[in-house]
Amino acid sequence: MKLNIVITGGAGFIGSHVVRLFVNKYPEYNIINLDKLTYAGNLANLKDVEDKPNYKFVKMDICDFDAFLKLMQDEKIDGIIHLAAESHVDRSIKDPFTFARTNVMGTLSLLQAAKLYWESLPERYEGKRFYHISTDEVYGALEMTNPEGIKPPFTTTASSSEHHLAYGKDFFYETTKYQPHSPYSASKASSDHFVRAFHDTYGMPTIVTNCSNNYGPYQFPEKLIPLFINNIRHRKPLPVYGKGENVRDWLYVEDHARAIDTIFHKGRIAETYNIGGFNEWKNIDIIKTVINTVDRLLGRPEGADMDLITYVTDRLGHDARYAIDSTKLQKELGWEPSLQFEEGIEKTVKWYLDNQAWMDNVTSGDYQKYYEDMYDKR
Ligand code: NAD
Ligand code: TYD
Fold this sequence. Notes:
This protein is α/β, with parallel strands linked by helices. The protein contains twelve helices and twelve strands. α2 (65-75) packs parallel to α4 (96-119).
């Protein structure tokens, strides 16, 4: 089957992995990467696919309704995989308006243009898909009832024997009530509601997925793992928010991209799927693992850079714990994470150390000013 697919935010971290997977796996599809190229968008993330005949890049703001409608019509778009967003919680605390504009108004603009185009066709919504990528942060924060962590098994899934220590009794389920705390998660929650409303009101074939924290190659170094790898390499301080005891649930980015592929093709319309690998870690434990790994790979004594750990003022409204239950996706569609965290971290650290030119490129220019503003005036 031949499909014309737009992937928004394809020049960003997760989007670039999704574009790469689709371009390589589906030569019969036309893949259009639509991205505004904000500070987080970088076409160097896609050097290896840019010359493929089934790939095209279009520079566009998702808020530009007219331009997007024209693109839908010109390219006869069948499917939209929507990842474009402002994605960093710290930036949302400083500048919530940009998050409302892109994440809420931008998503609404795509929905309305898709509706107009698809409703103009004889087959209407038949064979069409609007797939919206969201985050577990919309569910709010879970309690840390077991600060020391408890051993598996604590739930019944295919991979329960491989769970990392769980720091609470409960998980985020697809049925968990939305309770976003940050301007970022509030804007994502709002966009999720609009997507579902377009199904319920107009019958648009939508799917929403909520994924846990991703890590891996090509992540912009304002997020914990790449920022810290780069700082350790250059022996710069590692700003740990609060006590470093917040818990996040980590998934290797290529596993997220594979889940998106599975759900785009096999997911049921109007459903929500949680995506995660049952892999909870306290920030400070990740940070120590990253320090040891960077030190070892750079030939420094393991742990030599522990003194870079610098506890700083906590993030405002810092969510204590995220933990995703992805049983539905695992049981219904047969997806499973492919990597253990230790393996994924090793691969990730190695990638950043081997790709210093990429890091130097994205950390030049405005990036420096951003970090001066973000950290020096705390
Ligand atoms: P990212 O910040 O690395 O990339 C976002 C991309 O969107 C960039 O290429 C940027 O140029 C583009 N973009 C931003 N505003 C735009 C606009 N107005 N018009 C067009 N393009 C625009 O983000 P990411 O980490 O790859 O996240 C991608 C999606 O996945 C987001 O929707 C995010 O909410 C979601 N998500 C991320 C994570 C995570 O851990 N990173 C986890 C779960 C869900
Ligand atoms: P981040 O990568 O920003 O992802 P998110 O806020 O979406 O979970 O942060 C991951 C965790 O690491 C989060 O608990 C905040 C913490 N953190 C630090 O302690 N220091 C930092 O410099 C950053 C960027 C994050």
